[in-house]
């Protein structure tokens, strides 16, 4: 029988299953996170997202050392915007829409500098990068096939933003039968209230769609998996 590692999570302990647990890092892209980027141009305080980078770098490093699968996602669109429905394109500030020029290239367009992941969290060779046109990482992507092929049943969910792409992906995953632990200091929102309530919502009602714990709980559990493997 495979030894699991228990994470002291809320609302109750979460089991990390070796070989069946993957870390998913959602949309840690320059457009959302860097000063001068799309997120800041909308009036957001990017420090609230930047502070996620150091704990998330430590978590990714622990996962890699334990041989855990690491998956990255990027929200964005093809250059002619044919995969961006008008309902998404026509939202937000009229002068700063998807495809418009921004400090780091055309906003949220695949291949542009701003669309890519921040240097500190860059994927390494062999890690899967999922390009997604929506908020959820399962919508119109190969994610489910990738997870099924690898035999993954548990997800450690991280990235930005807590109430948008992290929530949407966690809900999608929960509905598909994955057990999801959202790592609280590795997810970020531009809005402190949304961060707090977003995390509360996940673990409410006995873990309505997931578990919550921070890196002080998750990293030692990953490390113990590595030593018992
Ligand atoms: C947003 C995201 N907020 N990654 N994207 O538009 O959460």
TrEMBL record:
<dbReference type="InterPro" id="IPR000868">
    <property type="entry name" value="Isochorismatase-like_dom"/>
</dbReference>
<protein>
    <submittedName>
        <fullName>Cysteine hydrolase</fullName>
    </submittedName>
</protein>
<keyword id="KW-0378">Hydrolase</keyword>
<dbReference type="Pfam" id="PF00857">
    <property type="entry name" value="Isochorismatase"/>
</dbReference>
<dbReference type="InterPro" id="IPR036380">
    <property type="entry name" value="Isochorismatase-like_sf"/>
</dbReference>
<dbReference type="GO" id="GO:0016787">
    <property type="term" value="F:hydrolase activity"/>
</dbReference>
<dbReference type="InterPro" id="IPR050272">
    <property type="entry name" value="Isochorismatase-like_hydrls"/>
</dbReference>
<feature type="domain" description="Isochorismatase-like">
    <location>
        <begin position="21"/>
        <end position="214"/>
    </location>
</feature>
